[in-house]
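During the second year of the project, the team shifted from modelling isolated chains to modelling whole assemblies. The rationale, set out in the original proposal, was that interfaces cannot be judged from single-chain predictions alone. As a representative example for this report, we include one of the complexes processed in the last quarter. Its constituent sequences, exactly as entered into the pipeline, are reproduced here:
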Amino acid sequence: MTVPNGRDAERGRPATRGEFAALARIARRLPAAPDGQVWIGDDAAVLGPVEGGLLFTTDMAVAGVHGDLGLMGLDDFGWRALTAAISDIAAMGGRAGHAVVAVAAPPTTDLDRLYDGLAASSLAHACPIVGGDLSGCGSVVVAVAAVGTAGPTGTEPGPVLRGGARPGDSLFVTGPLGASAAGLRLLRASVGAEAPAGDETTALVQAHRRPLARLDEGAVARRAGASAMIDVSDGLAADLGHLADASRVGVALDSVPTAPGATLDEALGGGEDYELVIATPEPDAMVRAFTAAGLRPPALIGHCVDDPSVRTVAGSPLPVVGWEHPFA
Amino acid sequence: MTVPNGRDAERGRPATRGEFAALARIARRLPAAPDGQVWIGDDAAVLGPVEGGLLFTTDMAVAGVHGDLGLMGLDDFGWRALTAAISDIAAMGGRAGHAVVAVAAPPTTDLDRLYDGLAASSLAHACPIVGGDLSGCGSVVVAVAAVGTAGPTGTEPGPVLRGGARPGDSLFVTGPLGASAAGLRLLRASVGAEAPAGDETTALVQAHRRPLARLDEGAVARRAGASAMIDVSDGLAADLGHLADASRVGVALDSVPTAPGATLDEALGGGEDYELVIATPEPDAMVRAFTAAGLRPPALIGHCVDDPSVRTVAGSPLPVVGWEHPFA
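Output from the structure prediction step:
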C-alpha cells in the first residue's frame, strides 16, 4: 500500500514485510564489509582511502525504456543497470570501486530477483554494493551510482577523457558490435513463438540481457597511452560522435566489426554493447599492451581527421542514429 | 515521445529539444569544475584526491511518495531530494563532497525548475553536482548519490556511526522537531483555500519545502566525541529506534523540543526535519563545542540505558510511528 506523504504507517516488530524487512533481506545477500569499513546499514557507507583522483558516475534504468520486462527478467534488468554505471568507470580507464543502488518499484515487485541480478553483476565486476535506498513507485526504476579510481599515481597516467583525441590518432574498438541490438531483435521476434535457440542466438540474447563492462580493457588502454575513450552505450555512431565533438576532430572509419548474427545497422546504431572505443597516437603499442595483458587485441576501425565535419564509414556518412530520451 | 527500447530516435543537429539539449541546458546552470577535475560532460566525473576515508550514500525521491507536487514546486522537490542525501553525510559527521543526480520524468516535466532547486540546494550546502543521468518515465523520480569525507586524519576522529552509543550516554538533538510535518499539515489544509500566511506558518512551510542538512553541526559533534549519530529523516521515534537498535541500548527521553506551531506527535513522528540526534558520553564538552563554533547549542533530550527494550519519553512508551515503504 502506498501512502503518499503519509507519516503514519504502522511498524510491526519484528517485521517480515515492508521496506525494512526487504532491506534486511537484501543486505543478507550482499557481502560484508572488510574491517575498518561500513557498507549497508548506516546513514552512509564508510570506505577506505582513495589513491589518486576519484571517479564518480550515475546511471538510471527505467523499465519499459531501458529494458522490456517482457523480454528479460528483473534479475537481468538489475544486472544491466549496475553494468551500465560500471561501464562508465571502464570508459575512463578506471578500476571499479563501489556502488550504491536506489530502487523505486511497485509494492508487488520481486525485489529478491532484482537484487539477484544486481548482486551477480556486482560480483562479476568486483564492484561491491555498499548502500541503497528503496521506495514505492508506479514504475520500476533502478538508479546506480559508482565510484572508482584511475590514478594518476606514480608513473601511471590519469583518467582517459572523451576530448583528448587528435587528428591522425588511430581508432580501435575492443570487440564486435551489434550483439545486444541483435539479441533484442531476436527476443522481440520470439514473443508468442518458441524461445529462440542455437549457440549464436544464445550468445546474442546473453549479450542483451547480461552485458559486461570492459574494465580490464579500459585500464590497459589507459596505461598504454589512450588519448580518448568512450563506451558504446548509445550506439557506435552516436558515441563516436560524442568523442569527436569533445575532441573537435572528425572520424573516418574503414570498417566496423559486427557480431556474428548482427547487421551493420545494429553494429552502428545499436547501443548497450559496452565495448570501448579507443583513440591513440600509438596503435602498435596499444595492440601489444592488450596482447601482453592476455586480452583479445582491439580492432582498428579507422582514424581521426582534422575536419570535424567528417563522420564517415568506408567513405559514406555515418548514419545519424542513437538513443535519445525525449524532453521538451 | 517515448520509444520503449527504441534505438532509432532521430537526432537533429544542433538540437534545441530532447535529452542532449536538456542536458546541455542543465550543465550551463551548474558551476564549472576547477582545474584538474572534470565534472559534467564525460563518462564519469573526475574528482580530486580524498583524505581519510570516503563516505558514499544514495537517496531517492518519488513524486507522490516523498513529496506532493500539488503542495510544492518541482524546484522544492529537487531541493529536498539533494538535501536528503547530503543529510546522510551530515549524520556521519562528514564534510559534503560532491553529488550526482539521476532524474526520470515524463517528457513534459519542467526540468529547468527541477534543476533550479537542485542547484540551489547544491549551492547552499557547498556540494557541487558533478554528473547525472536523465530518462523518460511515467513518474518523477530523483535519485541522488553523494560522497563526502569525515577523516580520520591527524588527530581528527573518523565518521560517527549509529551503533556507538553506550548506556549512560546523553542524547541531544540539534534543534526543535516537527516543523516539516506541521508545514505539510498547513499546506494540506490550505488546498483550495487562501495560501497560509504569518511568520510562524511561513517558517513551517519553508521547513517542509526547503529543509537544510546540518553539516556544520555534524562535523562539530564528530570532533567533540559523539559516540553515535543519526539524522531525523523518518521521524524521531523511528530514527532514534534505528540508533538504539544498532547500539543495542535503550533510550529514555525526558522531553522533546517541538518547533513553534508543531504538535508533539509531529515532533515525535514527523520526518524530514534533518536535525541530528547525537549520543555522547561527554555532554558538557558537546555543548561547549557547539557554542565555540558559533552554533546553537544542542538540546539535551534524554539518555541511553542498559535495557534495549526501554523506549520512553517522560516515562511513557515512544509511539511506534515513522515512514516505511510497503513491500511484499
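The longest strand of chain B covers residues 95-105. The two ends of chain B are 33 Å apart (CA to CA).
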